[in-house]
Backbone:
């Protein structure tokens, strides 16, 4: 048990460099923000298995201006989409905005973006379109993306943003769900989580431009149409599967996750610690218990089997059951179990050697003492 505790201490001390080195091996976009689930997402995304989500159509505005966007909305109004998410913020009014304003006023089931800024544990609106207080027809959703740090991977989407005035503003995804799937939105709210994990792997979308809209408008009937720029450098973000994913594409993945009810759960950290202790204890027990000459080989084989089983089980839980297990401590303790045994034995040998040396010095000193000194 003492050796197992030592292995745990080593794994905790080495956790940070392990994470950084692993992220470098797998080309993680943000090396200071890395989890093992990112590896699983990358592996799953590289599979031949792909899923086309034809419920969502992405309409790329490219370098088009307000006239082109207004034309898109006018045509979409005639196509009968189930909802439209316009991921473009018109902060300043310009000349000849009448066409755009009319198109926005007449667009069915339209959701427009808002940007917010954190104030402690709440938020305030910081980016809004110039017509925010004048046009009441569209709904609004907050487009801020959830990260663990300012430049971290975007793994989650926010459900609702608590505002400084005590109210809550729905995220872009939650607002769209309110248009197309109120039952799923209600389920999302009942879960009571501020953030939900997005599933990025093995999913694709149809991407169109204005010409496609003009030539085949029927492709947008009964679809959720997300409008945004796919080549805007200022709107590129790191995700577990891609270092530069457009914001509108991130919203698409989050919306697909919600529509599929792919709710993820994360196992608590203590589960990783418990499994790590048990597996490492088995390795150390085998090291101490096996006495024959092939002990080293058997223990190494046991290490490989346990490490493979841990990785395979966690991968299966993530992909098939939507369970996220951060088994970094488990893998480290499996790897450093024998190292802990060597350190333990080395310390024990050093203590025994020191004890023998002290005893030898005492005996030598006693031999040089006279009878009068001894008694």
Residues:
């Amino acid at each position: 048990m003492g050796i197992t505790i030592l292995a745990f201490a080593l794994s905790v001390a080495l956790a940070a460099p392990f994470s950084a080195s692993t992220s470098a091996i797998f080309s993680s976009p943000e090396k200071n923000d890395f989890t093992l689930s990112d590896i699983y997402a990358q592996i799953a995304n590289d599979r031949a298995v792909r899923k086309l989500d034809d419920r969502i159509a992405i309409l790329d505005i490219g370098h088009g201006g307000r006239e082109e966007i207004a034309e898109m909305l006018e045509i979409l109004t005639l196509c009968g989409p189930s909802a439209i998410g316009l991921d473009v913020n018109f902060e300043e009014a310009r000349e000849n905005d009448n066409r755009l304003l009319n198109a926005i006023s007449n667009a069915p089931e339209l959701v427009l973006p808002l940007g917010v800024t954190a104030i402690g544990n709440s938020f305030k609106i910081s980016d809004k379109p110039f017509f925010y207080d004048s046009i009441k027809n569209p709904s609004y959703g907050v487009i801020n993306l959830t990260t663990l740090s300012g430049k971290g991977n975007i793994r989650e989407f926010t459900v609702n943003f608590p505002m400084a005035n005590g109210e809550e503003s729905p995220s872009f995804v939650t607002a769209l769900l309110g248009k197309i799937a109120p039952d799923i939105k209600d389920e999302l709210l009942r879960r009571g989580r501020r953030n939900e994990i997005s599933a990025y792997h093995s999913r694709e979308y149809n991407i169109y431009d204005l010409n496609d809209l003009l030539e085949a408008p029927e492709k947008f009937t009964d679809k959720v149409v997300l409008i945004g720029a796919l080549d805007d450098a200022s709107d590129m973000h790191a995700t577990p599967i891609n270092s530069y994913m457009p914001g509108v594409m991130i919203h698409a993945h989050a919306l697909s996750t919600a529509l599929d009810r792919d709710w993820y759960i994360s196992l608590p950290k203590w589960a990783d610690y418990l499994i790590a202790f048990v597996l490492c204890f088995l390795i150390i027990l085998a090291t101490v218990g096996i006495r024959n000459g092939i002990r080293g080989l058997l223990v190494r084989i046991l290490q490989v089997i346990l490490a493979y089983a841990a990785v395979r089980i966690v991968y299966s839980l993530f992909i098939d059951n939507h369970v996220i297990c951060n088994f970094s401590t488990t893998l480290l303790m499996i790897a450093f179990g024998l190292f802990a045994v060597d350190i333990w034995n080395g310390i024990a040998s050093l203590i025994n050697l020191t004890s023998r040396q002290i005893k030898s010095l005492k005996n030598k000193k006693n031999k040089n003492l006279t009878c009068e000194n001894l008694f």
In short: Residues 56 and 133 are 29 Å apart (CA to CA). Confidence is low (pLDDT under 50) at residues 18-31. The chain has twelve helices and 15 strands. The first helix runs from residue 2 to 25.
